[in-house]
Specification:
Number of strands: 5
Number of domains: 1
Shape: globular
Structural class: alpha+beta
CATH architecture: Roll
CATH topology: Nuclear Transport Factor 2, Chain: A
Length: 138
């Protein structure tokens, strides 16, 4: 009598998304796709840079990061932004688990530098990050 080991293997998911540069795929002529962690990073940035209420028919999509630009930057505003980012990603992007949010304010220039570190939910569980700045336009 032989014994066999049953292995439980997570199915590898190939995350894909439309490339927002809308470049043409040179082989197929279709719009290019982003795959893997690049697709997830694009989705995270899309969620965080969309103002709440900006997306038609989904007024709760996005964040209110730009609404904090003209506030006096202090630990309270930093905590509000941290919570806003974590809540938006928890509700809208199930493929990531946020590990760390860093917010650096430059109140004299009305600018926020934001960095989000997250783990992508896949068998490899890579850790990725996105960094961006939000500032007022003249």
């Amino acid at each position: 009598m032989t014994t066999t080991e049953n292995q439980i293997v997570a199915r590898e998911r190939a995350y894909t998304d439309v490339d927002f540069s809308f470049r043409e795929n040179p082989v197929t002529g279709d719009i290019s796709l982003k795959r893997g962690d690049r697709a997830v990073k694009q989705s995270v940035l899309n969620i965080l840079l969309t103002k709440r209420g900006e997306k038609p028919f989904d007024p709760n999509f996005g964040t209110n990061i730009t609404g904090q630009l003209f506030e006096n930057f202090d630990p309270i505003v930093e905590t509000i932004l941290d919570g806003e980012i974590r809540t938006s990603l928890r509700n809208r992007e199930p493929r990531v688990e946020v590990l760390n949010v860093t917010v650096d304010g430059a109140p004299d220039r009305n600018k926020l530098d934001i960095s989000v570190e997250f783990e992508i939910q896949s068998p490899e569980a890579p850790i990725a990050s996105v960094s961006f700045s939000v500032e007022r336009l003249r």
